[in-house]
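hi support,

uploading two proteins for the ticket. first:
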Amino acid sequence: MTDKSSPTPEGDRIAKVIARAGLASRREAEAWIAAGRVSVNGKAISSPALNVSARDRIAVDGQPLPGRARTRLFMCNKPRGLVTTHSDPEGRPTIFASLPKHLPRLISVGRLDMNTEGLLLLTNDGGLARALELPVTGWLRRYRVRALGRVSQETLDRLKTGVTVEGVHYGPIEAVLERQLESNCWLAVGIREGKNREVRRVMESIGLKVSRLIRVAFGPFELPDIAECDVKEVPTPELKKALGPETVKLAEADFDAPVEPPAPLIRAKAGNRGRTVERKLPPDETNPTPPLRGHPPLKGRDKKKRRRSDRSGGPRPKYPRAK
């Protein structure tokens, strides 16, 4: 164990080691340390400014830290009405409580707010989550947006140079007008920063109010054809290829540790999925819109059961089952 004052620290920071074990993100690990939940060599610590090596005995809540697991990535179809957190102080339903119970301990790559749906990336490796969230990675997040109001492509093109809203600067945004109806429109939007509520705030700055926001892709990973709250793992060879050597190095990912063969699809319990809510739509939402970009077409019974189109042209939103 090496403290901050050592001239040649060895090993890694304690929060990083905990994140590598798949127990928490680095930020969560630092909070655990501050709360006195982490001990090293039998002594509780209160500061994350500590380097540890393989010789040190680390415990969380009195339980030995598990060995590092293979880096894994999962794609989840998040419905509206769930918050992206393990626990919510306001008691709102969370996406993690709705996931299949036999998954490993996972953390999200960034967050989707409560009313945003679509692709949510989950990983057991805090280092990978951090690497994919860093601005230097700069992966394009693609969204399908329904917004109230009218807009021209010329106005949307001005977002390519970035925009400042209420003192917050947002980088270049790619926005394409797919369909303009009488009082609302469908857009294809791409961002690289992923700041808090970025799409909604930028759209409001040009006179549009977002009524539906669906993330359809995060970098090379596209929203798979799965039901809400279901999870699909990215096989290790595909994951390594998609990340590329630079991101793998930045994340310090470990693809050699043993792990059980991934299941192609991990289903949530039926009770954890959203229930369909019928809504009356304005007359101007009767025209169909193009299918979601990057989302494969559904066939047969799945098309009828899982993603029936509403009269606005997008997949019908669902909400968590009332408890």
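and the second one:
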Amino acid sequence: MGELRKPRFYQASIDEIRAGETTDVYFVRTEQIIREAGLDRHVRAEFSIKGLPHDYPWAVFAGLEEVLALLDGLDINVRGVREGTVIRPHQPIMEIEGSYLSFARLETAILGLICEASGVATKAARIRTFARDRILASFGARRMHPAIAPVIERAAFIGGCDGVSVVKSARELGEDPTGTTPHALMLIVGDTVKAMQLFDDLVEPGAQRIALIDTFEDEKFEAIRVAEALGDRLNGVRLDTPGSRRGNFAQILREVRWELDLRGFQHVRLLASGGLDEREVAALYDYVDGYGVGTSIANARTIDFGMDIVEIEGRPVSKRGKMSGGKQVWRDPATLLDVVLPLGKGPEDSSPVSMLNPIIENGTLVDPVPDPHALRQFVLDQLAVVGGEIVPKNEDD
């Protein structure tokens, strides 16, 4: 056996990320060659999506604020789309212009920041589309490394979730954390009704009284018992029934709704959770008032961005399979459809708007970063246009 050592956490610090210690080693070696050979050049490098998972028609761009924090103070120019923008493959969404060595070592970190956050925001936006006007809460904290919980839940919120469960994440967003009751409480107390009575007696009045009703008995009977015990103080019941016991989840929810309404508890909302994805969210819409979605949002497939140099010292250049030179994306505000043209060339129609706009000029941020609530509303406004492009398909199909 090796020498015993004290366990530790393995996440990189912010200073280590900014110093480029989370970069791929080939960038370190590339830097060495360019520096020692005196080959540093002024470049234009663009970021675009190579492809989307599962034939998604669009994605939601997220993670830009952290990219700007990473690039803060560097002598570069950055153009890009607004965070929260609905984007499509094979068109630039961000561009960095400056000395290559000024940002070369940060490429890995930049891609990591936008690939994961955009994947989460995209999945949340897809589920938001099928949840329509129902409550949608992010319950995915236990499916991620805790160090990045605020990152993931910020992206989920921007993508359209109404609330997040992690205390720090909610605080960063200026929201109250969203949550109900766990099976652990029910098991330790030994009875669902007694557990909810203790919750009602001891937890601050502002917290929603939402009972988890599938720990011990049939859901509809537990719902009746809790509703009769708490009356008007009961805000809702949550069904987290595992797949092995679920059967027809829609029918279970329908029965619970029927029994509660029959006894005058129309005010009690029904919330569903437990392995939900687009198809389940769409199928349960008529029977629930809200959803708690964890794994499918927190563990969403990343969006496959890449960075490519398209200009060196003002001369268009590119690798195979890429179009060289600076570009501008022009969008029709009514349809959110785009056309990509060479930089400096505008569309014949005057209605499209430019999407790649200055964000950093000569190392200075052009505008303040938007509030997450404004970004979320921006996403929701776009979903009203593009939401009909998707179907309720689960990722394992």
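thanks. also noticed: The mean pLDDT is 93.
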